[in-house]
Write a structure and sequence with these properties.
The structure is a homodimer of 346-residue chains.
Chain A: E1 4-12, E2 25-33, E3 41-49, H1 53-57, H2 63-66, E4 81-91, E5 101-107, E6 111-114, E7 120-122, H3 139-151, E8 159-162, H4 170-180, E9 183-188, H5 191-199, E10 205-208, H6 215-222, E11 227-232, H7 236-244, E12 246-254, H8 258-261, H9 272-277, E13 281-284, H10 294-307, E14 314-318, H11 323-330, E15 338-342
Parallel strand pairs in A: 8-9, 8-11, 9-10, 11-12, 12-13, 14-15
Antiparallel strand pairs in A: 1-2, 3-4, 3-6, 3-15, 4-5, 5-7
Helix pairs in contact in A: 3-4, 3-10, 6-7
Chain lengths: 346, 346
């Protein structure tokens, strides 16, 4: 007899075109079969990733705009896919068995019915906590690794500036930069985060951008010898100020623009003469284009985490119902490190 | 007996902080000796280059701003150096003799006293007109060559957009792109220039940006399949519109920002989310960083000019006194191709 269960999941009520609020979301329920069809894998979700870029997928964009993006638009009432770790409940594929730990594209829900073609891999935790496989060993981790080494092309001794430095990506970039032999300054939005950057993550210096009335002067103060690399997570005025303080042949890696996701941010009005005369390169990138670096990335970060050379910051909320507030909090800077929701006990 | 002569040259009366007018300049006179001291070469200037970037050197910038630039600031009352072709009048160096044709850093004047260390090379015209050695075979030429091949990294069949396409650099970039097998559309500021791009230089299409009320729509119309490469000479709103119309992994090469030189232009407010999601690279560059490509560049363009595969556009005014109006005209778009002033008969 086919066993069916109720699966609760989070959906948007309608498209979101500004800063999100909890009311934009609802818990929905569907009935799913726990007997996997051929080529299907049914996964009980354990830890799921909460990422700012997902807001972009929730906008009412025209189809012409969305085709350039990797991730499909999120539709009201529908399940929202996300990176996560889970455990196989039933498998219609020979390569997965009941109770296997898996990592891949799951859902903001209790269960995911993973159809063929959707990203799913068996997970060997390698002695590291499961949430690490959502954060520092997941897409945020690859973003930091590929962004810093492939896009920023660092040289030892260079001056590196990281914005949103206590976030999932920035916290890793700063640590990679320090280990590589760069001078690293980060900025964040609270004294607590600033202390953490300096005391726990080993940044050479850090500041609270909310305390600064003039970002240009602030960067001049923190970088008397100029900035060689800017790892930008925020865009807007911070990007303008960083370009103004860059050295010749400086590089800007852009991996997200949190100031623009909510539509409330000011676009940066860059001094393009600076870009020309200082021969600056500004490059947008996505981790998905750097899967060729995946092997190097995993072996490097696993080693650093095990030996304690790097710290993983995971900010975990509990329960499916906490997803909307966890997500909304990203845009207020509530999280420290990678935001993850634990859906079920391991 | 030492022969001395009067040397007339052009100087600025004071620093220029906006669009230049002819009144900003004056003709000055100095007495120079025609007996070259040891290691000096005295050159009679024949053709000198007139370039928009020189305005930037005429601003009253702070020293901290100017140190990042390659060219020293221009001081009121002083001689203004520029790329040019001349003939040796007297030489205190064994490697130059009277009547040698030379190319290098000369002056907006009748004569240049070239001291040791200043760029000067013997010129073999290789059967090409002397003005070609100031323009397409000079720094504008290297800017176009290195910018297109090294910065834009073209692939056959890609869609290339060139702004200021009838200018010294743009006219060459468009021709390189066509010869390379790209689809090329240029924009310029008059119907006459547009006709020239299509009829003489072989651009696939061209438009007058002054006729367009919405640059974004114009680019959508001219690039229904999107832009892969944008060679930007102007910055401002054109750069915004180009980024909005770029394809994934698009590249923007920035070699000058004529809208910003005069301080009157609007800085581009770029949609950085586009830059991230489309993984766009925006790169400033200067020809001076690409001297390693000089040999390739010279052999390529010499061949193309001789065989008629490329056209050189030289826009020549005559007489030292015409320099201020030639220079001022650059910012009104008066020139077609490389602006050069002939100072003396060959």
């Amino acid at each position: 007899m086919e066993e069916v269960i109720e699966n609760k999941f989070i959906a948007i009520k309608s498209h979101i075109n500004g800063a999100p609020i909890e009311f934009d979301f609802e818990v929905k329920t569907e009935t799913i079969s726990l007997s996997a069809k051929s080529k299907e894998v049914i996964v009980k979700n354990l830890y799921v990733s909460i990422d700012p870029y997902q807001l972009h997928r929730m906008k009412s964009c025209s189809s012409s705009q969305t085709t350039i993006y990797l991730a499909a638009p999120v539709q009201p009432g529908q399940s929202i896919d996300t990176y996560g770790v889970g455990r196989v409940v039933a498998s219609g594929r020979p390569d997965f068995a009941k109770d296997d730990l898996v990592v891949g594209l799951l859902a903001w829900g209790e269960y995911t019915v993973v159809e063929e073609g959707r990203l799913l891999n068996k997970l060997d935790p390698m002695g590291l906590p499961l949430p690490y496989h959502v954060g520092p060993l997941g897409f945020s981790g690859l973003t930091a690794y590929a962004g810093f080494f492939e896009i920023c092309k660092p040289k030892k001794g260079e001056n590196v500036f990281v914005s949103a430095a206590s976030g999932s990506v920035g916290s890793l970039v700063g640590q990679y930069a320090k280990l590589f032999g760069c001078h690293v300054v980060g900025c964040a939005g609270s004294q607590k985060k600033v202390d953490l950057l300096k005391e726990k993550l080993g940044f050479d210096d850090a500041f609270n951008y909310k305390d600064e009335t003039d970002l240009n002067s602030a960067l001049k103060r923190y970088f008397p010898n100029g900035i060689d690399i800017y790892f930008d997570n925020v865009g807007g005025e911070m990007l303008e100020a960083a370009v103004a303080n860059m050295n010749k042949f400086g590089r800007v890696a852009l991996c997200g623009v949190i100031s623009e996701y909510t539509g409330g941010g000011k676009r940066p009005a860059l001094e393009m003469l600076d870009v020309v005369y200082k021969r600056i390169t500004i490059q947008g990138f996505l981790a998905a284009d750097h899967t060729k670096n995946y092997g190097d990335f995993i072996s490097t970060i696993t080693d650093h985490l095990r030996t304690g050379k790097m710290q993983a910051l995971c900010d975990i909320s509990h329960g499916l119902e906490s997803i909307p507030s966890a997500f909304v909090g990203l845009f207020r800077g509530d999280n420290i490190g990678k935001k993850i929701v634990q859906i079920a006990h391991e």
